[in-house]
């Protein structure tokens, strides 16, 4: 395994830090969000991160891991070196990241939540998904999180916000002033965007 370089990058959520690697962890467009250790059964690296008593959430995407801490009074400067060293050593040693392929899991979950939309809803949903993938997701990933389409019904778009976006003070503003405005402008059928996974 070649040497892994890794750096920490702040996110808009003061409790979340993005650790960016020069290595691919997941295929582009696939991500996993573990709000607690119980949810991380599929990911040995996430389970190990939860062993640090200040880690409250782990989000993994193509080339970064976002860690959200549970102790606001604990400064990042004291814990970044420890987390960075752990992730670097784990990946360099070829440690198991996932026991089940997250891409397959994501596909199955999307199929299960799609239900049986009308043909028109199906066209609208596809337009929304394309806009989220091409315009919104890259910006959200820059901030250490992710957005995924959950459903579209009667003008209401439901999305999932993951990683640093969950619990971020600016997530609701971003959702309403940014994402909702974009979708309403580009897809006139959209009346509102609501999010799951936002802890206010």
From TrEMBL:
Belongs to the NifU family. Residues 6-94 form the Scaffold protein Nfu/NifU N-terminal domain. It comes from Hymenobacter polaris. Gene3D superfamilies: Fe-S cluster assembly (FSCA), Scaffold protein Nfu/NifU, N-terminal domain. GO terms for molecular function: iron ion binding; iron-sulfur cluster binding. This is NifU family protein. It holds the Pfam family NifU. InterPro entries: FSCA_dom_sf (IPR034904), Nfu/NifU_N (IPR014824), Nfu/NifU_N_sf (IPR036498), NFU1-like (IPR035433), NIF_FeS_clus_asmbl_NifU_C (IPR001075). GO terms for biological process: iron-sulfur cluster assembly.
